[in-house]
Amino acid sequence: MRRPSPEPPWMGKTYRNRHGRGLRRPTFGARLPRYRTRSGMFDDMVAAQLKRLGQAWPELVKPLQFAVEDVPPSDPLPWEDEPELLSKAFPAGHGIPPRIVLYRLPIQMQTRDRDEMQFIIRDELVSRIADHYGRRPEEIDPDWGL
């Protein structure tokens, strides 16, 4: 009498890794900090600073759009003497609201740790918002530049 062949491992309820030693599962959970990428953490820091500024100055932050790009464009405009490497403000035009763009890689290259990166993000956002409205950065955030 012939016995039925066993099911392949992937058809069963549990299957082992390729060496047959343990169950396949991630080595760390999706909610742990290691799961976040550097770009995801940078976006979270920008969102936290925008939330903080939006609570303090909703009338200044609400009409602006904010974006994060990896690197600044490589060709500066003809009237720009020095390209701004960390962030750039774009004026409103043709139905598009004014925008502030932060460049992630230049900011990350200038910092050594998360705290320093948060300070640079805060300073860049505050200085761009202040430039847009013709105010001093200290009026918007008294801790600017510290």
From TrEMBL:
Record's protein name: Peptidase
Superkingdom classification of source: Bacteria
Basic residues: bias regions: 15-24
InterPro entries named among the record's database cross-references: Zincin_1 (IPR010428), Zincin_1_sf (IPR038555)
Signal sequence interval, chain numbering: none
Classification via Pfam families: Zincin_1 (PF06262)
Region (Disordered): 1-30
